[in-house]
Amino acid sequence: MSNYSTSEFKSGLKIMLDGDPHSIVENEFVKPGKGQAFNRVRIRNLKTGRVVDRTFKSGDSVEGADVMDVDMQYLYTDGEYWHFMDQSTFEQHAADKTAVGETSKWLKDQDVCQVTLYNRAPLLVTAPNFVELKITQSDPGVKGDTAQGATKPATLETGATVKVPLFVEEGEVIKIDTRTGEYVSRVKDN
Amino acid sequence: MSDWRSTASLYNLEQRAQLLNQSRSFFSERNVLEVETPLACAYTVTEANIESFGFFADGAQRYLQTSPEYAMKRLLADGAPDIFQICKSFRVGELGDLHNPEFTIIEWYRREYSLQQIMEETVDLISCLLTASDAFINIEYISYYDLAEKSLGVSLQSLTGNEIKQLAVENGLVLRADLSSQQCIDFLFSHKVEFAMCEQSITVVFHYPAAQAALSKINDDDDSVAERFEVFYKGVELANGYVELLDPEQQLDRFANDQKNRKDRGLTEIEIDQRLIAALRQGLPECAGVAVGFDRVLMLALGASSLAEVISFDWSRA
From the centroid of its chain, how far is CA A117? Predict the structure, then answer.
């Protein structure tokens, strides 16, 4: 992997730090008039998701991280691995539990997810911002409970549980924002 | 394609013109003579932390000036009275919200001014430019070491080189083998200390460590500090000033030390400005001088968050 000089720093650049791949979130040039110049960066550890502030002396170079974001179609899970396919190369990748994490509860076959590859292996799986999933179980809303914003729990086909408005029924397909885990709307059948 | 357009609003350009006028009135009311000195000179600064744009013209090396200091000192040595200049200056690689490689400096020299006098005049100019809106700004004077101790909770002077590096690393510096303790101090000062200053005050930091004297005189009573000051507002460095070093031999030593630093860091060699040295040998009168970053003052006066907003065409569009 090539090295990057601080003058090439920009948000989105993937670099190695303390043995882990990181992504630059923000980069700021700091220099006292008569003193040493620095690049203060806010970086996200792609393994842990932790964001930290670090400073490099300007002119230093840093090893680039072999990290790529690729859109892949989710195929299935065998319980241990989640299998994805790169739609342009048809190459298949197996992501483990660490890479999939909480995202597993939004994964439905055929959906296209962003898979972050590190040294050509899945490091992180990001669900599409919005997914459409079927409600497999939800009790009927209690009649008379018309309070604004009242909700009830609903279990989805993937096993996830979300809060839905009282009028939404079992068997319906709903749209969810995976970033917040919140119900967005009902999806009308064609 | 929209990069032909200005990065500043018309309103900001009008304010820029007004503050430039205000700066000129400030000095003309005080009988300070406006001068212009060359921007493309045969010599440039030797400092390791400042990189000049160099080019060849008519077969000879020229440099765009990183500040008008040397030429203005030559004028003073040649008999000029109190002088000021508003000019462009150039520094390679200094690019960010608070930096533009081409920027505007207001620089002036006062004969026989003490550190206190020149600090007060600098604060007068900056507050007059900042308070076009009549806001009252508090002013705080604090020495370099006191400020460092106040914000770091430990006296810098009491720390060894290794302890300083340790402190820098604890505060987020990615340490490389070649970092000097002076560079770690620069890090601590620009990342921790400046942020500990009061947001509402103009902060004047004086008596910089002798190692950072640059072109200033060493204090008569305490040779560990220099007659150098800087002015900050909202964490932004706005001015740097000195009671000027007069001794040509001491100045030569410092330039030679700069050259050594440049060599150690693998930077290109820069010749010492022999015309400045000749002027100092002729005799620079007792004086104090300051450089104010005009674009930054304007940025803060307008509540803008980057220099691009107050410069007609920033570096990306120049």
Answer: 13
Determine the Cα–Cα distance for residues A91 and A93; give it in Å rounded to an integer. Answer: 7
Q: Between chain A and chain B, how many beta carbons pairs sit less than 8 Å apart?
A: 73
pLDDT of B225 above 60: yes
What lies within 8 Å, CB to CB, of B56 at 6+ separation is: B62
Contact across the interface for B49 and A40, Cβ inside 8 Å: no
CB contact under 8 A, B96 and A17: no
Nearest-CA residue of chain A relative to B46? A34
What is the length of chain B?
318
Position A140 pLDDT exceeds 90? no
Which band of pLDDT confidence, cut at 50, 70 and 90, is reported for residue B49?
A: very high
Distance between CA A36 and CA A22 in Å, rounded? 25
Indicate if the pLDDT at residue A81 is higher than 90. Answer: yes
pLDDT tens digits, B59-112: 999 999 999 999 999 999 999 999 999 999 999 999 999 999 999 999 999 999
User: What's the whole-number mean pLDDT along residues B157-166?
Assistant: 91
A57–B98: do the CB atoms touch at under 8 Å?
no
Out of B50, B174, B182, the one facing A56 most closely (by C-beta) is B174
Instruction: Using CA coordinates, name the residue in chain B closest to A8.
Output: B93
Separation of first and last alpha carbons in chain A = 49
Tokens (6 digits) for B204: 């004047």
Query: Do residue B97 and residue A57 have CB atoms under 8 angstroms apart?
Result: no
Question: Which A residues in the span 24-63 are in contact with B, Cβ-Cβ below 8 Å?
Answer: 28-38, 40, 52-58, 60
pLDDT in tens, B30-44: 999 999 999 999 999
Considering only the beta carbons, identify the residue of B173, B182, B240 that sits closest to A33: B240
**Cβ partners under 8 Å of residue A34, min gap 6:** B47, B49, B50, B212, B214, B240
